[in-house]
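ARCHIVE CARD
Drawer: 12
Card no.: 0347
Subject: one protein chain, sequence and derived structure
Cross-reference: see card 0346
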Amino acid sequence: MLPTIFLLLACQLLGETFHRLTGLALPGSVIGMILLFAWLALVPRERPTLTIVTGWLTAHLAVMFVPAAVGLVNEGEALKADGVGLVVATAISTFLTMAVTALVFRWALNRFGPLDTVETESDSPA
């Protein structure tokens, strides 16, 4: 588990370093994700361990929002001035993110998913 967490943090760090050194318009976290993708393409044996660790991190994701929520308390004036706009922007961007994620997941499942499909009742001949 620790080597996999180190891999995630190393990709993040390399991405941030590359972003700061080059001034590239992509955020460092996105560059780190691309580096992680390249690493997983080159070293496929890392995938099962990464799946387990990311599942654990996702299960405990709520804990990671605590510092962000505490930080919002200190921004009361900004929230008072632009709170409605922030809520609308967050709702719209969340919806768009979920829609794009679902479309990409559906495409990837059709492209890379298992070849044997489960026949549903509506698919079977009567």
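Annotation on reverse: The radius of gyration is 20 Å. The mean pLDDT is 86.
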